[in-house]
Amino acid sequence: MEAPRTPDRDQLVAALKQDGFDVQPVNDLGIEVKGDGDVLADLETWIAETGIPSVPQPADDTIFLRPPAS
Known about the structure:
alpha+beta, two-stranded antiparallel ribbon
């Protein structure tokens, strides 16, 4: 997974850990997520709760957080 900014990445890591995922920050904006569960659903919940204008974009084994189309 790749977050748009480092503070967003850190918040998302904490939220996913709280939901039981094995999560590690990778490089500047990356997040490695392991575990059972629906990561995309948790990600969508986190976006709704934080109000960060992002849209999850799955691609292969990665989910990118992108700004919404204008």
